[in-house]
User: Fold site-specific DNA-methyltransferase (adenine-specific) from Gluconacetobacter liquefaciens.
Amino acid sequence: MTGNITTATDFRNTILNGDSVQLMRSLPRNSVDFILTDPPYLVNYQGRDGRKVRNDDNARWLRPAFNQMHRVLKWGGFAVSFYGFNRIDLFADAWKAGGVPHGRAYRLSQILFIIFPFSSVWA
Assistant:
């Protein structure tokens, strides 16, 4: 899907593929019920085969992304974000800061740790 989205029905049951910050900017305010995101963890990951995750070595995208998540998330909506536990401070700070311009209070409800015996589940 390309172009600006003007109403919630314009993207209902639609997969949006692209830069998440740019896509969210095109969504109407308070139009999303649920956000599930598995962004880069900011841990400079490199797999055993040498592969890297794009944008996993810088946090420039983090605050703009969380700001847009706050903007598009409906009041009473729910957001889940995965992240590396050693970078929880960056993600929590971005989430808190993102709510401020939108008059939203930050509430961290639960942290669940899943520990794998190696860096990649399918290694």
